[in-house]
């Protein structure tokens, strides 16, 4: 048995010891609306958008990084926690750009949500979701391009390793390369720490998104009809890797 096969077997048989303790109490926790939409969370740790994440995500990531390093893979974060305000700036910046270029508000929104979330609906608000690359690989100008993670791409070695071992540490790819999946396009760099993100998603599903987006005065919110919200919830929020539901 080679080293990779041994590592995979070890993680599968004893992997729970590699994960930080996640109690039933945490799984049943009542999350506040502010926690779920990125407006504050006492369980966050870190100083910047590259380091801030849920405390349990931090521990699991440290263990996963240490194992990957043994294969000369440097798991590097390019985006971790993202606040409501930061996501609002991203969304509204794109909205203003696209409408000024001649797109209708609806066309602009549809273009934005191919890859970017509406503020208050991002999984990055939870501190559980990370965009990852290999810091030991040659860094292209734009790192978050799907082709970089396959074939001869600079991050394909890391992606192959993640495909084999990430789930043993609790991390799952969110927006998979499933042609039947709707919503956000394939993101081979985006992984979620399931022991925390699954209960957060269950709590999130109970929120009144239309009301929240209206109260927060998100630019373009007058176009978030009931039909739009229902479709966005079904496709962009819930049409993800089924292991994360």
Short characterization:
This protein has 245 residues and is an alpha+beta fold.
Tally of domains: 1
The CATH C-level name is Alpha Beta
Cα-based radius of gyration, to the nearest Å: 18 Å
N-to-C series of helices and strands = HHHEEHEHHEHEEHHH
Total number of helices: 10
Give the CATH topology.
Answer: Muramoyl-pentapeptide Carboxypeptidase, domain 2
What is the correct CATH architecture? 2-Layer Sandwich
Q: Indicate the mean pLDDT.
A: 90
Distance between the termini: 34 Å
Strand content: 5-15%
β-strand number: 6
- Estimated structural class: alpha+beta
Q: Sketch the major β-sheet.
A: 4 strands, antiparallel
Low-confidence blocks of residues? 1-7, 12-17, 21-26
Helix content: 40-55%
Reading side by side through the largest sheet, how are the strands ordered? 3-4-6-5
* Structural shape: globular
């Amino acid at each position: 048995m080679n080293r990779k096969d041994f590592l995979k077997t070890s993680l599968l048989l004893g992997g729970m010891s590699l994960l930080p303790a996640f109690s039933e109490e945490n799984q049943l926790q009542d999350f506040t609306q502010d926690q779920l939409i990125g407006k504050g969370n006492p369980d966050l740790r870190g100083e910047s958008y590259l380091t801030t994440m849920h405390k349990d995500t931090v521990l699991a990531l440290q263990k996963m990084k240490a194992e990957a390093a043994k294969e000369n893979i440097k798991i590097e974060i390019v985006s971790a926690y993202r606040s409501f305000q930061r996501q609002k700036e991203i969304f509204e910046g794109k909205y203003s750009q696209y409408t000024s270029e001649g797109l209708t508000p609806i066309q602009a929104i549809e273009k934005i949500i191919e890859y970017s979330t509406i503020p208050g609906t991002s999984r990055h608000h939870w501190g559980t979701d990370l965009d990852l690359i290999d810091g030991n690989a040659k860094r292209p100008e734009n790192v978050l391009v799907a082709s970089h993670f396959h074939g001869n791409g600079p991050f394909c070695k890391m992606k192959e390793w993640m495909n084999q071992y990430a789930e043993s540490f609790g991390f799952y790819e969110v927006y998979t390369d499933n042609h039947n999946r709707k919503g956000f396009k394939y993101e081979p760099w985006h992984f979620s720490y399931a022991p925390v993100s699954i209960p957060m998603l269950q709590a999130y599903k109970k929120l009144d998104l239309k009301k929240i987006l209206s109260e927060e005065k998100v630019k373009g919110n007058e176009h978030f009809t009931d039909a739009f919200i229902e479709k966005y919830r079904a496709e962009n929020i819930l049409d993800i890797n089924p292991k994360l539901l």
